[in-house]
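Repro:
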Amino acid sequence: MKKKLEINKIIDNKYFYPVLVTVLLVSSFFIRLAALNQTEFGNGWDVYFYLEQLQSLVHYGKFHSPDVSLIYPYFLLFYFLTGSFLLAVKAGSALLSSFLVLSSFLLVKKLSGRSLIALMIASFLVFSPTLTFFTAQFPKNLMGLGFLIFFLYFFLNQKKIAALIFFILAFITHRSTAGLSIVFLVLYFLSRPGIFRRYWMIFASVSGIGIAVSFTLPGTIHIDDFLRFKEFFGGFQFPFFSFFEALGKDQFSFLWTVEIILICFSFFFSLFLILKQRRFFLLPLIFLLLLLIFPFFRFNLEGPAYRFFLIFLLVSPLLFFILLERVQNFFLVFISLIFIIFSFFSYSSYQPKLFDPPYEFYHKVIEKSRVFLKEKDFELLVAKKALAEMTGFEMERDAMAWKPDEGYRSERVYRFVSGVSYQEIFYYLGSVPENEIYQIAPELLILREDLWEKCIQKARILGEEGWEEKFFNKDNPYKRRPGYLLKNKEGKKK
């Protein structure tokens, strides 16, 4: 009893929450920055696209690929502070994790009515290996998610102007958070038809503005994105198991595995409690979370189901913690302390060598190819996605992970060829000018595009077993950019 009274006395101090929340926000920043700085190269599969965009903006005054998002001016601010493109993205991404911690703290405080429960969710997110992974892989999604949660906070507080501002910010930051914001509004108004009848004009106006923006700003959610809907769906799968299979079961640390298991069990336990206690005001949030783990989405590392599941892992704990309003202060403080202690070990759950492309190897490849291409008159390099983006950044030349569009002359295009040996190229072509082919590594070489096309023609004529798998795969781009990318973006990359 005495300990409980002492704890209550501490948490009743007016400086307790401001000081502790500040400490958690700072801790989240440095923990994620430590995780990202485990490598001298970028983090995640999209990082060099961001770096190339920033570099182009600073050096040439325009984006390399038109893509409207608040992530770029945000990273640009860090570039002016640090003078380094790479450090700007690392530090900016790390701070976005603190932004999510703050927004989640405020939302849970609003819905639970208890600051100590909000402190618990903040402590959990500081610890969360999932948030560390998301910070490294998807900073643009992370920014959008922070705006989305702030939108929910102000919307549920009936702060209309602030809610509208954060809705717009979420809308123009990333397609996924734009879509989730719209879905939440639809679900909310469907559950409260009386409110919809009163505010339908506002809802219609916001929808009209959103549609207009989607047609004019490249990179935002666009009507052409619906062309991809058929690609999103596949057979039945359970996202929990699909996530482990997609990344590889052996790549998950013990702490991250435990976190994911606890989140999934706590979500279904929360559903049981909400239905039992008839807390129907939470239904819009529940349906939004259920959409994120819809079992008929096609689950792969390139599709939306993968990112949706990560968002689910970050948002669903909020639902569980909201239901803890009757738990005693001593227990809440104890669990928060456990999260805080483990947070200083959880950062190592993110291993760049396991989760990032082999950027160190790519850097060596680029340095070797730079020498070979020094005297070449070329206009485009073709390579698999991560290598193409890193090449574009380090060489400041156009590079893409698609088959060149018809506007390019194949004699002025070079490509990184993977999995086809030097000897095989000579086998298909008979002879190759020495200055048009260069062996970089045992299974990687540079070849002029028109010669590559002749190899494919010869292989097709010979019809040897397995030739299609050798030439048409993700390591050797063979598809042209689909229409929805060409309609919404005019750049040469994506």
